[in-house]
Every structure is written in C-alpha cells, then in structure tokens.
Design a protein that fits this description.
It is a single chain. Helix content is 33%, strand content 21%. The chain starts with a strand and ends in a 27-residue tail after the last helix. A hairpin with a 2-residue loop joins strand 28 (794-800) and strand 29. The chain has 28 helices and 34 strands. It is α+β, with helices and mostly antiparallel strands and 933 residues long. Strands 9-10-15-14-13-16 form a 6-stranded antiparallel β-barrel. The chain has a 4-stranded parallel β-sheet with strand order 2-1-7-8. Strands 19-20-21-22 form a 4-stranded antiparallel β-sheet. It is globular, with a radius of gyration of 34 Å. Helix 11 packs across helix 14 (405-420).
Length: 933
C-alpha cells in the first residue's frame, strides 16, 4: 500500500515525527545536506580546466554552481529514491529557515520525484504542530533558496580569492571569511585599545552614615540602619570618577592639560585632607528625592539572546548552547532555535500567562498580554521566539528526569524567560540622597569648602516578573563605582527614613585610591551582542563563526575572555590595509541586508553577485569588485604586515613557527640577526610591554644553566627556558659550516649535523632545582623497558605531548605518572598491555565524552571518545577522528553519522580517480514555483 514519504534532516527528528504520524507515513532523514560545491581538486577531470575549475562556480555565466552529492551521502540518496518509489506523495519537512529550504531544494534536484511534492514547515515538534503543518503545506520558496545559494557562492568567492593572499604573506593554511574575518577584527581592535590604554590614578572618599540627633531619637528603629555614600562634590566642583577619564589617562575634554572645568581630580593628599577635615563634622541631609521604580521583563529568547544569556548564566560556549538547543528542539522540548524574532504566538502567550498565574498568582500577570516585535527589519528564520514547545508548557520539574544536565539547564532558562516575559512589571521606589558638611581647618587648603556625598537605594515593593527570572548583563568596566553610593544599580538597597535637614553621623570615612580599567575583552556573549548590533552575519551562524576563529588559532580563550593571537594581528592588518572594504563593518552589514532582499524576492541574485565580484564601474572606487581588488593588490610588505612595534626599538614578529620579539636597537655584527626570543602563548598581546619583551630577550639570550658534564659522552649539559617550557639539552662540539657554500648548501649541511639530545622538565621540576643527575635521567628517554616475549617487540617508556606512556610498535599505553617512566618494569608493562586501552592521562577506564544515539546504518550506539591523537567518534566498529573545526562539545548526532558514513565509504586506502561525466549544472528554471510569504 503506497505511503506518504516525509523527509527531515536528522534521525532524532525523524523518530519523533514518525511517532506522531503513524503507519500511513514513512519518515526518513537526509542527515543534513546531501550535496554541496566540491573542492576544485575534486571536480571531474574534464571540468578542472573549464569555467568551473577555480571555484566550482561558473562566474562568467550567471554564477552557475556545480553541485556534487557527498560521497558518504550517495547511499542515503539511493535509500531515499527507493523509499520514494513506494510513495504516492512527498513531504519535504526540513527546517523553515534558508538552510532548511536549500536542503529541501537539493533533495528535489537529487531525487527528481514524479509524485506530488509539498513543503511542510513547523517551528516545534509536537503532535499539534505536526498536524497543523500537514494541513498547511506550501510550495518551495525559491527566494529563500536563492539567498542561501548566494551566501554559499559569496563565501566561496571570498575565501578562495582572499585566503591564498594570506598563505603567501602570513602563513600557509590560513583562511579568510566574510563574517569570521570581521569578528576577528573586532577582537583584535579591542586588544589594540587595551594595548594603547593608559591607566589614570584617582582617589575618592567614601563613608558610612546613620541618623543622628533629633532624627535618631524620633525614629529609633531607623537610627541603627547605616548606609554608604561617596564624595561627589567639593565646593562647586564635581569629584572625578573613573568614567571621567579617557583611555589615554586624561580627563575627558581636558585638551591634554589634565584639568577640566567644573571637575576636580582628587589625588592622595587631597583625599586624605578631606577625611581629616571632616573628622567630627556635623553632616546633614541636603536633598532627598524619591522616584517610582519600574522594571519590565526581557523579551523571549532569540538565537542571539539565548547564546548571550547561556554564556553569562550557564557558562556555555555558543556552539555548546546551539548543540544543546538543537537536541531539545529535535526531541520536542522547545521551538526552533534559529530565529531572529522575539514574538510569541497567541497560543504560547496564553500558555505563559496561564502558567504564571498558576505558579505565582493572578496579581503577577498583567491585564493585557505583552507583545514583542523584532527591532531587526530583516528578521528571518523562524517567525517565533525560542520557547517551550506545545500549547501548554511543561515545567522544568516535569521534564527533569528526561533531560541531561546541559539540556535541563538550558530548558529551565528558556522556560523561565518565556514565562517571565508575560508577567507584570517589578515595582518599587528609588531614593537618592545628598548629604554634606563643611571642611574644617585640618583640611589643608580646603577649609570652609563644602563636601557633598551621595547615595541611592532601591526598594522593590512588588517583584512581578523577578519572581521567575532576572536577566544578566555583561561586565561593566565602571561597575564598582556604580554601586550603592552613586546609584545606577538595580539591586535592592534600602536607605533609612530621613528628611531634608536631618542630622547624620559619620561612622567611618575612608580615602581610597583607584586606577581606571582598560576596556574589557570580548566574551562570547558580548561578541555575539556586538555582531548583532552591527548587523554582521546572522545569529544562527554566530556559534560556528566563534568556533572557527578559535579553531583557526585567531582567538584564544582565557576563562571567558577572548584573547586574539599575534597571528590574528597579522591577518587583520593585511585585510585592513589591502582589503579594507571587505572587513568594513558597514559594508559587511550591507551585504547581510542585501541577502535579506534576495530572500524576500526583491533583488536578483545574479545581478548582486555580478556587482560584488566584477564590480560596478558607475559607482567609481566604491564599486570595485572582488576580482579587480585581488588582481590589483600590488606589492604587499610581508615583513611589515607581520611586525608590531613594541617600543624602544623592540618589535614583535609573527614567524613561521610562532611569534617572537627582536631588539633592533642592539648592536650586531653584519649579517647576524638581532637578539630574538619566542613569545610564550600565555602572554597576551596587551601584556607584552617593553619590560616584558626585555625579560624574554634576556631569558632567550641566556646560554642556559650549566649543570655539568655527561660522564659518558663528555658533552656539557645545560638547562634553559624555551617557548614550550623549560628543558635540558647537551652542547655538541660541532665543526663550523663552510660559509663559502651557497645558502641552500649551508642549510643542507646544517641539517646533516648530529642533533643534541633534549628533554622537557617534569611538572615537579624547575630550572632553579634541576640537577645534573635529573638531567641525565631525562636525556635517557626513551628508555627501553624490555622485549615482549610473545611478539618480540621492544617496549619503551617515553614522554609525549599528552604525558608519559609506553610504546610497543604502534600500540601505546598511558603511564600513571611521570616518575613511572624511569621505574616501570617489564612485568608491569606487560600487565598494562593486558588491560583495555584507556584514554590518555586516565588512570582508569572512563565513560565516553558524549553519547550521540544510535547509528542509523550500523544500529549501534555512537559515542565520542578521547584517544591518543585527540577526540574521535565511533560506533564500536568504525572510528573517525574529529576534524579540526569540530569539538566533542559542538558535534551533533547528524555530523557524527556523516563522519562515520564517510569513513566507511572510503574503504581500503586507494587513489581516487574522478569519474568523467557531464557537468550536472543547476538549472534555476527547474525550481518549483515560489510561494513568497
């Protein structure tokens, strides 16, 4: 009996939907995209020299792309074709965003169905939503497909034209990207600000006050309530705080004089003089102002705000957030997680209001529902916020036993935010008080001047939405001075009841010095926020963008802060100086807006790509195209691009093997290099001061600590610091290389010379305490433990990148400690080899890093494990090391299935011969009629 075939992207999604549709439907998964632009090297031989040879896109003929089905997806496409033969109707139920629409179109192109085709969309996987989607199908929206295809071609053109320039001038293997390069520039610019920052020193005076005199007697209950206040005014001048200084350490608008009209910059002497002059002074309330306090709830989550809040509250990386959100969506717990819209459907609004009333009471729900709208005119993706799925929401307690740790935390966050968004405002009052006293004669030069202190406090009388949820915020560099004494903080702080003229007693006055803070580095949350505010990229791609710039080595994580590498400095400088328009924030945002126009059917993709790549002469220099830009680059000073001046003749250079500093002011013999020293990875760019550079140069110039002489070889043994940590080595007495030889011959002669033995110090050792005996022990590695009596293979103990281990042929076993390298016996080694192989650095077998469900091909559970060569995914039969741009946290079940299928498809290692076949060109005319909505 014919059935209706429904195709979705993921196996998890397929299983969930199959349970809702019953036996009349067969739900299959494409497991993500089935085809894409191949690498030019993978094109059929007869196409490599044709118009598709450079990009797999014919730029001369309408930017026509050439697509190939992934090698590991051919079997899946064949399975879908067989299933389609038994079907009388095809439902394409991929995600409702551009990417999902493109997957649906590629399925149409590959499957070529002869039965009726319907596009089925939904933003949550519940029985009601799936039934509604079946009743409200539509045609494929080719405008969305065009937008996705334009983006894919745009990224191919950008990457393939710009990246080779980076390879030639900075380092082989680097990549440039439309959004990743701009994101990297943001992080680098912030670090430049920190490097140029000059701290300003300033002092302030704070005090603790309470009611005094008649006021205390009249209100004994209030008399015991002390509050803090900060000095804000001396006479007619306002006291400078951190906000009054610029990043050069000067008072803002001071014209470089260090002074500013109407503002006084307190130094230590003045601040202490104020404290002395106020000893025993009679303080009184000068003014008191009370205002109503109202705070409204935050809108429901969009993709961007979810990533930001999960980073702040849950310490989740963006990719971890999106991976977890995807699993919640595919299993029916939340709505679609890629959305720019904060709006809620009528059903969801009712569900949130109903749940708020049930849990907190009717007073906590406003009379009218709250309506949220996107501030982004080009808002795309799903048309509703991220919220709990269904027409009624399950509380976190109801799903706690069904979800893993990260899933539960993220679901709870989404649930709280959604319910709170439909709750009443928080209400209260904010009181601001100014109090003061005249300075006595003890205040040198300040006697008679009026000292005014300020404090504020907020009292929340009705918590409203705060009973359910409170939004967090990014780090504020001026947060410390904003608290309590000067207001600006939403935390509750109650001031005692007082009135103008009331006497106050000063219980404690203190002068304290402060330094202004450099602009804070970006975190993932603040970078996502900045990208969204600038209109760069799409929130749905931010997680992959941040992962890419980290995986490429452009950005390193230090806690939650994002620190750019020196490599990023070189790449950004090259792009700024020679591709300035491509990394311009406004230009990049305009490109995103143009893609929105294409998605809406208001702009032609070919016309837009033509203008981007070939240019528009009518617009003059502003109309220069990418091809012309690359062709007319001119000379690029690679040395200049890779150099950053530090000061006093010292510069940093980005070399082939990493960053190093060199002292150009040092006197050297002709033909010799200036003094140089590697820069450790743990030294951030803003920490590389002249003093730090000289410290590194001094350490690098050190010939090492002489430990003694090896009694066997007679060579001197030294210990010294290196880029990768302290180590010991031997000094070989090598004959000088003939300088009359050519440079190439000298290089070959040097390579042919014996290499000294080296050994890294153990974690328990240091340069200060290392002895000759310790060094000789380290240089004895690898140590031969013995021979396996069964195989005859030699077993050695070694120290490797991931710690100490045993090696027998290609088989290895982790040793329990560094000391074991020198003490392990043959019997102990053989016993270790009898045990199951364990992950590096693990004393006992540990559970897999992640479990990803069953493999649809083998039917066995897929897990992520930690191996000797890094993390890998396996179903127990097939292993596949994770690619560089994929981490155990970011890999999805679908991607794992793809990797395993790809590994199986490779079979025995052999050279692949491209099949000769005619170009399978995309034919735009064959797209189903668009239904533009």
């Amino acid at each position: 009996m014919p059935r209706k075939l429904v195709i979705v992207e993921s196996p998890a999604k397929a299983r969930k939907i199959q349970g809702y549709l019953g036996d009349d439907y067969e739900v299959e998964a494409s497991v993500g995209h089935i085809r894409d632009l191949p690498q030019p090297s993978e094109l059929p031989a007869d196409m490599k020299k044709g118009p598709y040879g450079k990009f797999a896109v014919d730029v001369e003929n309408g930017f026509d792309p050439y697509y190939e089905v992934y090698a590991d997806k051919k079997k899946k496409v064949a399975e879908l074709k067989r299933a389609l033969k038994e079907a009388d109707e095809l439902y394409l139920a991929t995600d409702e965003d551009r990417e999902g629409e493109a997957i649906a179109w590629h399925l149409l192109e590959a499957l070529k169905p002869k039965v009726p085709v319907k596009r089925m969309v939904f933003h949550e996987i519940t029985r009601e939503a799936i039934q509604r989607a079946l009743q409200n199908t539509r045609d494929l929206d080719t405008s969305l497909v065009d937008a996705q295809e334009t983006r894919r071609i745009l990224d191919r053109l950008y990457g393939y034209e710009v990246s080779p320039v980076l390879w030639r001038k900075v380092r082989q293997g680097l990549s440039a990207g439309r959004v990743q390069s701009v994101a990297t520039r943001l992080v680098v610019e912030r670090e430049r600000e920190r490097m140029a920052f000059v701290a300003a020193e300033y002092w302030d005076v704070t005090g603790t006050f309470g009611l005094g005199g008649d006021a205390a007697a009249a209100a004994p209950d209030e008399a015991g309530k002390a509050f803090s206040a900060r000095l804000v005014q001396l006479g007619d001048e306002r006291v400078a705080s951190g906000r009054d200084f610029d990043d050069r350490g000067q008072l803002k608008s001071s014209g470089g004089s260090g002074q500013r009209a109407g503002v006084v910059h307190l130094d230590e002497a003045t601040a202490r003089g104020v404290v002395a002059g106020l000893a025993g002074a009679d303080f009184a309330v000068r003014s008191l102002e009370t205002k109503p306090y109202t705070r409204r709830p935050a809108a429901p989550f969009t993709t961007s705000t979810l990533q930001q809040e999960a980073s702040r509250k849950l310490r989740m990386a963006s990719r971890q957030t999106m991976r977890t959100a995807q699993s919640l969506y595919e299993n029916g717990y939340i709505t679609y997680m890629r959305t720019d819209s904060p709006s809620l459907s009528a059903e969801a609004t009712s569900a949130a209001r109903r749940q708020a009333a049930e849990l907190y009471g009717g007073d906590f729900v406003p009379e009218k529902p709250r309506v949220y709208a996107s501030k982004n005119q080009g808002a795309q993706e799903a048309h509703e916020a991220i919220r709990p799925a269904g027409d009624s929401f399950r509380t976190p307690a109801q799903v706690a036993k069904e979800l893993s740790g990260d899933q539960f935390k993220l679901y709870e966050l989404i649930w709280k935010r959604t319910v709170a968004s439909q709750m009443a405002d928080a209400k209260g009052s904010t009181a601001s008080v100014r109090l003061g006293a005249a300075l006595a004669g003890a205040a040198d030069g300040l006697a008679g001047r009026d000292a005014v202190f300020a404090a504020s406090g907020t009292v929340i009388t009705f918590r409203g939405f705060l009973a359910a949820y409170e939004e967090s915020s990014d780090v504020d560099r001026y947060a410390e001075e904003s608290l309590g004494a000067t207001g600006g903080d939403d935390r509750e702080a109650r001031l005692p009841q007082m009135a103008e003229g009331d006497a106050l007693r000063a219980e404690d006055l203190e002068a304290a010095g402060h330094s202004t803070s450099a602009p804070p580095r970006y975190t993932e949350a603040s970078l996502v926020k900045a990208l969204e505010e600038l209109g760069i990229g799409r929130p749905s791609t931010y997680a992959s963008t941040i992962s890419t710039i980290q995986d490429r080595g452009y950005v390193l994580a230090r806690g939650q802060a994002m620190v750019p590498s020196w490599l990023a400095f070189a790449v950004v400088r090259l792009l700024e100086e020679h591709f300035d328009r491509l990394v311009d924030y406004r230009f990049t945002a305009t490109m995103e807006a143009d893609l929105d126009e294409i998605a809406a059917g208001r702009r032609d993709r070919v016309e837009w790509l033509t203008q981007f790549y070939f240019g528009d002469a009518a617009r003059g220099p502003e109309g220069e195209g990418l091809r012309e830009l690359v062709e007319n680059l001119g000379d690029i000073d690679a040395r200049g691009i890779n150099s950053v001046p530090i000061g006093e003749g010292i510069q940093l250079r980005v070399g082939r093997y990493g960053p190093y500093v060199e002292d150009l002011s040092a006197e050297v013999k002709e033909g010799e290099n200036p003094p140089r020293a590697s820069v450790p990875d743990d030294v951030a760019p803003d920490e590389l001061t002249v003093a730090k550079a000289r410290e590194l140069l001094a350490a690098g110039a050190d010939d090492g600590k002489v430990l003694g002489t090896d009694p066997v070889s007679g060579n001197e043994i030294i210990a010294k610091a290196g880029r990768y940590g302290p180590y010991v080595t031997e000094v070989l007495d090598l004959p000088p290389i003939d300088t009359s030889l050519s440079a190439a011959a000298q290089k070959r002669a040097k390579a042919a010379q014996p290499k000294p033995r080296t050994g890294s110090l153990l974690k328990t050792q240091s340069l200060d305490t290392i002895t000759l005996e310790d060094a000789l022990q380290l240089l004895s590695l690898p140590r031969v433990v013995g021979t396996d009596p069964e195989s005859g293979e030699e077993i050695t103990a070694q120290n490797g990148r991931y710690g100490p281990y045993l090696k027998k042929g290609t088989d290895s076993r982790t040793l329990p400690s560094e000391e074991a390298m020198f003490t392990v016996t043959l019997e102990e080694a053989l016993e270790l080899y009898k045990q199951p192989k364990r992950g590096r650095g693990q004393r006992a077998a540990t559970p897999p890093l992640r479990e990803l469900g069953d493999d649809p091909n083998s039917g066995k559970p897929i897990v992520v494990k930690d191996g000797r060569f890094g993390a890998y995914v396996t179903d127990g039969e097939t292993n596949r090391t994770l690619p560089r741009d994929v981490t155990p946290e970011s890999i999805t079940p679908e991607r794992a299935v793809e990797l395993l299928a790809e590994k199986r498809a490779q079979g025995p290692a052999k050279k692949r011969t491209p099949a000769k076949k005619p170009a399978a060109k995309k034919a735009p005319a064959k797209k189903p009629a668009a239904s533009k909505k």
